[in-house]
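All the exercises in this workshop are built on plain-text protein records. Sequence and backbone structure share a record, each on its own labelled line. The structure tokens are whole numbers drawn from a learned vocabulary of backbone shapes. The record below serves as our worked example for the rest of this section.
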Amino acid sequence: MSDRQRSRSRSPDRGGAPQDSNGGGGGGGGGGGADEEVKLYVGNLSYDTNDDSLRSAFGRFGSVTDAFLPTDRETGRPRGFGFVTLSTRPSAERAISEMDGVELDGRTVRVNESRPKGDRGGGGGFGGGGGGGFNASGGADVKLYVGGLNYDTDETALRNLFEQHGPVSDCFLPTDRETGKARGFAFVTMTSADAEKAMGACDGIELDGRNLRVNESRPKRDSGGGGGGGYGGGGG
């Protein structure tokens, strides 16, 4: 049984609430009632964190109706992020407020509301970029911009980090044309679903002593007035 099938089978009936194919559904829009269930995205998890410890950490804020840690389909290892569903919006909001940036099992976790793609235009969901929401073009693959790199970080280390969230079809670390030295940023290309997960899990994570900035790389014409997408230079 695949991890996605396991996620659906373990989740309680939500009365027909839409489920995002990436496991990011169920969050709904921000204006729902207090009694609605809310699914939270939890990123930068320790590989030692399991379902029980995740339930325990979030259970003090309210009733946890589901906790799910995706695993790599080939190795069976955790992928470094998870989803926790709380029974009410107030409890979910308290969890976000008190758990985002807190250390859990030795890692500083990131917590925000997981929302279906259609609700992410304003930067919700996995900490996504600006105008148009994540992958507004609907392409099969997405190029991610990775900033804040240590100059000693090489392609292998970067690939290893992102391949925890899915196959990497391209990894490019630009170098200075005169000195040949790394320029401190890179581009990583993955399928849309894996790229969105990787962006949420890796943005703010520490690699080789530096905290990375990860977002969707967009052509300059798309990143100028959109309110935060891309870091320029990220054109396809």
